[in-house]
Amino acid sequence: ISGVDDDHVFISSGENVHLPCNNALHDCKSTTWIYNRFSHSAAVELINSGIKKKDTESHERLSLGSDCSLNIKNITKEDYGYYRCQQYVNEQRQGDEARVYLHVLHVSSSSSQTEISAGSSVSLSCQLYSYSSAGVSCGDLISSQGIDLLWVNQAGDKLKISDSRYQISAPGHCIITLTTTLLNEDDNREWRCEVTQGDQVKTTVTYTVKIS
């Protein structure tokens, strides 16, 4: 799917992320960051010669670190994609470009209300947004890298399909949905969706239910 030097960074929406550059040079005035959301989208310059481009939708949330890294605040699901850092002197690229695939985990609720009444059914949809290229999808990434999506309770125990309180469905490799009927004791209860690789948790996103 990608070269051995490519980084895969998993992050949950709402968090801040730090994407490393190759640091061939320590003068960040030579640094350019380029972004593609997917393979057939046009490349977007986020940083040019160490200066933020003002016409990008995310520019207010971007900053350049002292090590020429790209910092993005308050990640949204639209920030997923393929990021490249290049450094130039006299239009000659210095060293290898740094390549980072950013994968964003996001949970949405079937209810638009901030408080839901007991006895109501609610579905929480957890989706991993990943860069896809020709013939390579998010599902390919998951199957090739040994990545899993799962729902866990506050104690960290995996919610099982056999538990009659919950209906867990996975309509696609990169989406998993938890459906349950809310009880009074569910007020302030946390449900967590995790991305795991083997026994390592790569990122997690928490949804807290408020009962009206």
Automatic annotation (TrEMBL):
<dbReference type="Pfam" id="PF07686">
    <property type="entry name" value="V-set"/>
</dbReference>
<protein>
    <recommendedName>
        <fullName>Ig-like domain-containing protein</fullName>
    </recommendedName>
</protein>
<dbReference type="InterPro" id="IPR013106">
    <property type="entry name" value="Ig_V-set"/>
</dbReference>
<dbReference type="InterPro" id="IPR036179">
    <property type="entry name" value="Ig-like_dom_sf"/>
</dbReference>
<dbReference type="InterPro" id="IPR007110">
    <property type="entry name" value="Ig-like_dom"/>
</dbReference>
<feature type="domain" description="Ig-like">
    <location>
        <begin position="1"/>
        <end position="86"/>
    </location>
</feature>
<feature type="domain" description="Ig-like">
    <location>
        <begin position="105"/>
        <end position="206"/>
    </location>
</feature>
<dbReference type="InterPro" id="IPR013783">
    <property type="entry name" value="Ig-like_fold"/>
</dbReference>
<dbReference type="InterPro" id="IPR003599">
    <property type="entry name" value="Ig_sub"/>
</dbReference>
